[in-house]
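Quick entry between incubations.
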Amino acid sequence: MDDNEIIKLFLNGDQRAIEECRQKYGSAILKICTNITRSSEDAEECLNDTLMAAWQSIGKTTPKSLGSFLKQIGRNLALDAYRRRNAEKRGLCVCIEELGELESKCFPADEELDKKELDRLIDVWLSGLPKEKRIVFVRRYFYMDEIKEISKLLELKENTVKSTLLRLRKSLKKYLSDNGVCI
Amino acid sequence: MNNNELIDSIGRINDSFIDEADEANLRAERKTANHFSIKRLVPIGVAAAILLGLAITVTAYSDHILEAIFKRKTELIDSVSVIIENASDSAEGLTVTVDSAARKISDDLIFLHFTNDDGAFDKGINIGRYEVYINPSDASQTNLEVGKWHMWADYSETDCIGVMIEKIGYDKNVPVSRVDYKLSLNLISGRYRIVFSEIVTDSGEVVCTAPLTVEFDIDIKNMPLVEYSHNKDMKNLFEIDGVEYSIDSVTFEPYSLSIQIKNTGNDLFEYGGEEYYSISKFSDREWMTKRFYDLWLEQIRLHDRYDNKVFKDKKLSDKMHELGDEQLMEYERSYKYITTSYALGRYEDGLYDIVADQTAMDISYDIRVELKADCGAEVRKTELQSDYYDSYGYIDPDSKNSDVCVAIKKMFGFTDPIYSSDIERIYVIKYGDPDFELTVYDSETDDWLWN
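Done. Structure below.
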């Protein structure tokens, strides 16, 4: 079913919208949630919560891209679950650790930063990247894919993906620093 | 700000980036990507369609090519490049960003790109002139004074000879919001300043009125070299018109292949009352008369001695070079040249008098390289290389004796980086005989090129 039709179902309060979303985007959302939580049980729960959140929010807001909208919700819910679990030391998501490099070396923890400004800077930085590198970054840090998966998807050596990501993190760090985010 | 805020912020990136990276969308998006030249890819796709007699999709083939180019660039170049990412804006909203730099065994590379605040460059872009300045930081790498600015290069994008800046995957017919360039030059450690001026659209409209200047630092000490290989003393023999030649050495790096051809017999032929070395037939612009070639080789040997054995005193060495050059010019004025492709020429009063000579061209050869179609690259240019006078020939620098044999070295530059295994074939043609084609290396049956 077309995204616009699904959104109409939401707007009309038709519960078939949830099933259509599950069919169309369920596996993608589940994948992101699994990547983050490392638990199929938690991921399944996140998927259900995502669909429920969509049910409650569409109407108040109309997504430009239904797929991205659902994935963003799923990712946020999975991160919440991850953080709860991380507090209990039940495992770490490597890609979140990677981004932690930037925090420890770069960001002053006590400084409040305008979220919208940070979002804007990251969007601008991403838009300036060659498409292929942007895909590598988004696959890793939005979708939280494994290096191996990105390597397979883009037909690159794993070491190439790793070095590309390293360079991208350095680039992001420099960009944020140049724009006053880093000390 | 903490890590969670950064992770959360990435979670709120533009929808288009999320869709773009989605596996299901990835291939479809790449089919329409205009980051690389569609123009260059279409003929390949069309040829494939004709070959199969089927209406196969050109875009599917292009997609494969785009992936091949990206894979090679990432693995062979990006993996050993250093990130720079310094940018500068013009009042008109044009931004130049120096992305990265890579060191090679030959010239080095700087990758940069232009973006336009107003959106796509729907009328194309051309750099009329760029000047590169260097402020060196390491005296051990250069004779230039450290801490001062020096002119490093001054060229135009449209120069026919010595083009150092090239667009990557550009098609002026496909509007793009980003135009990538590859700048070739020799790097030393220091601060660089590039001044771009006379930036115009393809139709000549001024894009940027004031010069656009960007500065950045490079420290070459910790920069690894792009992978290369050099095979020498190979004895791959082939014969044309009763003369035996050999491909004596090859130097490969992802953007170029150099081939040296020798004629160990130093065979001669006569044309128009003058003697020439047979190897000259591989020279695509001029044949040097034997008399001049011999003088020239002697000059190189003299220079070599000045540089490496006798004179360590730079001033004295420079003086000897100057004297040697004067002597060479004197000889040059008195001898006749033949330009195989177009002309019979004579150096008079600082000018070459060009006269068409089709016969000379018809008995000349050309060595060519064919790449595998699925690597995505094409041979961009070929040029004769030498350690001394460009386009005249080449002397083996390892041969210090007076019995050196004549040789020609030819360099093939590629549009995009390739693996050595992407070289399909090396062959020789005769300009005057369209039926003549001699394959000297075939990747299907030969292995000598890399052994």
